[in-house]
Amino acid sequence: MKTLGDTLKEARDGINLILRKVSAEVDIDQSLISKFEKNERKPTKEQLIRLADFYNLSHKDLIISWYSEKIAEDLKYSESTSEILKVAEEKINYYKTHNNGK
Amino acid sequence: MKTLGDTLKEARDGINLILRKVSAEVDIDQSLISKFEKNERKPTKEQLIRLADFYNLSHKDLIISWYSEKIAEDLKYSESTSEILKVAEEKINYYKTHNNGK
DNA sequence: AAGTTTTAGACAATATTTGTCCAAATATAA
DNA sequence: TTATATTTGGACAAATATTGTCTAAAACTT
What we know:
Two copies of one chain form a homodimer. The first copy, chain A, is built from six helices and no strands. In chain A, α2 (19-26) crosses α3 (30-37) and α4 (45-55) runs antiparallel to α5. The longest helix of chain A has 18 residues, at 81-98. Chain A is elongated and about 45 Å long. Helices cover 73% and strands 0% of the residues of chain A. The first copy, chain A, is mostly helical and 102 residues long. Chain A has one domain: lambda repressor-like DNA-binding domains (434 Repressor (Amino-terminal Domain), Orthogonal Bundle), CATH 1.10.260.40. Chain A has helices at 4-15, 19-26, 30-37, 45-55, 59-75, 81-98.
């Protein structure tokens, strides 16, 4: 199962850059980026966007990865997870249709 | 769409108790309980369990409500929500089958 | 071995969540 | 209406969690 960290690492490997360089470009501490790649920290959404832009990765894909990992982390040890997700989706749809958009 | 707050309020109305009484029984500030009922605060999981026990409500149902509201709150303004939830579920299942249980 | 890159961990700064209190608002009863 | 009781809003401090920064050790390259 490919993690967000894997994606970031692959992207960096793909262009053969060292952390120090990426760090300078995206203005994020290299130690943080290292941790993102090893899934020891989660980037903020802003950081994620900056990395996506720099690496030319799909915003959408990264955001999906980012949110889904957050949710999975939360529910990992919980029961009834598929019901929870089903209800969550209903609520979201309800919300979206009733407050249209924002 | 029935909220967690609605459920708690209905339960209390069902047994006709005032906040002060419930508060004393479950040891949660009455103002907090009021806010739970109005969805202005979210109970902690522990508080939720104590309320469930006191009101004789299904733990499972309340937990589903609690988590799904949390997730919905997070994703409310996001795009690709159904994809996010789909991927989240895959990750959870992956996690559960590979670390079986806990 | 020397130099470079990556990583772990401690730490302060910041932000978020939580519990508590009280007085204003609302409802109920006399 | 007035008096009494209940509910609610809001401010605040305490506790907890997240975030960014730095440093030096570990791992890797030359």
